[in-house]
Amino acid sequence: xxxNSKLYSTRRLVEAxxxxxxxxxVVDHLRCYMNIASHQPAVHYKGVPLTGFDAVIPRIGAxxxxxxxxxxxxxxxxxxxxLNESVAISRSRDKLRSxxxxxxxxxxxPVTGFAHSPDxxxxxxxxxxxxxxxxxxxxxTQGVGVVLAETKQAAESVIDAFxxxxxxFLVQEFITEARGADIRAFVIGNKVVAAMxxxxxxxxxxxxxxxxxxxxxxxxxxxxxxxxxxxxxxxGLNVAGVDMLRSNHGPVVMEVNSSPGLEGIEGxxxxxxxxxxxxxxxxxxxxxxxxxxxxx
Length: 296
Ligand code: ADP
Hints:
Mean pLDDT: 92
Low-confidence stretches: none
Number of helices: 9
Strand content: 15-25%
Largest sheet: 5 strands, antiparallel
Bound molecules: adenosine-5'-diphosphate
Strand order of the largest sheet: 12-11-10-13-14
């Protein structure tokens, strides 16, 4: 499932599947339709039902989460094996929910507060240890809506502005010692198969590659490895991109991504990550092997 067959990750997955002898078809989830009341659940596409598939690889962008997970759920109801399950994808897309789940299971994360319309900005800031803080809009991706407030005054004005937007946001301890770099661990099953360190461009605390950051292969510590594997497991994701910062008190998780891009990680590490994903499907896909089949 992908909106665009020309995207790097989509192309690589199709290529890797064909190389290993599989038939691959790219389906634009927003163009799928289905009869949810039918006794025989099916997904229709361009006038025909999509049948005979062993597995589905969801590549659902943040803006299509709602409809994309509905289509995936329908595939699950027909018994097709999903690389990542719809429930796990929805869970990972909700930043508050995922941070709460990870924290409950003892995963390290930056000290984080969340708020919608706080009456007491002072107390909210004190809760996370005061400035400098990073303030994040819950809806943001690729570093948009992520602001570093170095002083209390700056933090207060950003929070005031966000309050006016009627938006949910996070206020987070700024991990200064990360020095504008983060770690992306690519997890498949219960293994980290590749990892890279992304460094923001000069003067930028955000390391997103879309914002001009650069990526290099990195060797993870055993603690970073187990944090990444556990985080993916807690979210219920078979394949995940776990983003961490190197803090003075060990790795802290920022986000667990359910459709991690392949271009950056394959480019930085030279590994055939697409092939490893197909390999995982070969070993794990069985009809009807979805925990959430029908329910959830
Ligand atoms: P998005 O999901 O929009 O990419 P992130 O939460 O990943 O937003 O933040 C973007 C970047 O900002 C991260 O990759 C990281 O480099 C930096 N960053 C985010 N939170 C912190 C923090 N608490 N301390 C230090 N740097 C951070």
